[in-house]
Amino acid sequence: MASSLEDVQTTDLMSELLRRMKCASKPDKRLILIGPPGSGKGTQSPIIKDEYCLCHLATGDMLRAAVAAKTPLGIKAKEAMNKGELVSDDLVVGIIDEAMKKPSCQKGFILDGFPRTVVQAEKLDEMLDKRGAKIDKVLNFAIDDAILEERITGRWIHASSGRSYHTKFAPPKAPGVDDVTGEPLMQRKDDTAEVLKSRLEAFHRQTEPVIDYYVKKGVVAHLPAEKPPKEVTSEVQKVLSS
Ligand code: ADP
Ligand code: AMP
């Protein structure tokens, strides 16, 4: 361990130390981001994650990684994902339960794309009860369906990090490559106008009731997700600092 640390650049060590000192003073936060596909959850998550030192758990990213690696989970999930339908509750509840144990989730988490059904929300409550924890805030990315097709069909992602770009609204510094790693960007198989219809149908029928579930608990903040990205970030910051 000591020898590997000796090999780390002083500037990297210092910035990690500063990051940890900043994080020590941050309050714990357990957040859920809910919104239809393309509403901006994945765009805002890295900003919130860095500000509050949380882990970002996006079930869609985890499932896509499992599909790419052809794991048993990926094989079970692939068909539903390609059709724009939800995968079974048991599959996603299992991966979230496991992921929340990561050391990076020590100060809390951002759940992005989970829970997407009331059953998942109930299971999440059970998981948190066992850990003596609760959800602090649910950010509802409210947006009209009509805006989403252009956002979805222009989206390019960096598969391993989940970073989102858009040809018109958030272009990368160099066309087709990730700003951070320089690796190539890709388009998601389900980011077509056709599959978006099923994904929106699933959102309205199965996920909107989850918003009501949390409204009853008094933890929902509604965000104007149709605004430009920086304005949405300011709204998120207002909600989280209150
Ligand atoms: P989600 O994670 O909710 O599916 P993303 O954050 O990936 O959505 O955003 C979908 C697409 O829209 C991406 O291409 C992203 O760059 C772009 N985008 C995100 N937020 C905004 C915004 N506020 N205004 C315009 N485009 C946005
Ligand atoms: P996303 O990246 O959030 O748009 O998710 C992509 C796809 O993964 C969805 O269309 C579903 O097929 C599947 N998926 C992601 N999260 C969940 C979830 N919580 N419950 C069920 N299916 C999910």
Structure description:
InterPro entries: Adenyl_kin_sub, Adenylat/UMP-CMP_kin, Adenylat_kinase_CS, Adenylate_kinase_lid-dom, P-loop_NTPase. Keywords: Kinase, Nucleotide-binding, Transferase. This is adenylate kinase. There is one protein chain. A hairpin with a 4-residue loop joins β5 and β6. The chain has helices at residues 2-6, 10-24, 41-52, 59-68, 72-83, 89-99, 118-130, 148-153, 193-215, 229-241; strands at 29-34, 55-58, 108-112, 137-142, 155-158, 163-166, 220-224. The strands form 2 sheets. A 5-stranded parallel β-sheet has the order 2-3-1-4-7, with helices on both faces. By secondary structure, it is α/β, with parallel strands linked by helices. Bound molecules: adenosine-5'-diphosphate and adenosine monophosphate. Adenosine-5'-diphosphate is lined by residues 35, 37-43, 151, 154-155, 164-166, 169-170, 227-229, 232.
Ligand list: adenosine-5'-diphosphate, adenosine monophosphate
Average pLDDT over all residues: 95
Shape: globular
SSE string, helix = H, strand = E? HHEHEHHHEHEHEEHEH
Helix content: 40-55%
Distance between the termini: 41 Å
Class from helix and strand fractions: alpha/beta
Quickly count the helices. 10
- Main sheet? 5 strands, parallel
Strand content: 5-15%
Number of strands: 7
- Structural Rg: 18 Å
Kindly report the spatial arrangement of strands forming the biggest sheet.
2-3-1-4-7
The parts where pLDDT drops under 50 for at least 5 residues are: none
Domain Adenylate kinase active site lid: 155-190
EC number: 2.7.4.3
Function: Catalyzes the reversible transfer of the terminal phosphate group between ATP and AMP. Plays an important role in cellular energy homeostasis and in adenine nucleotide metabolism.
Protein name: adenylate kinase
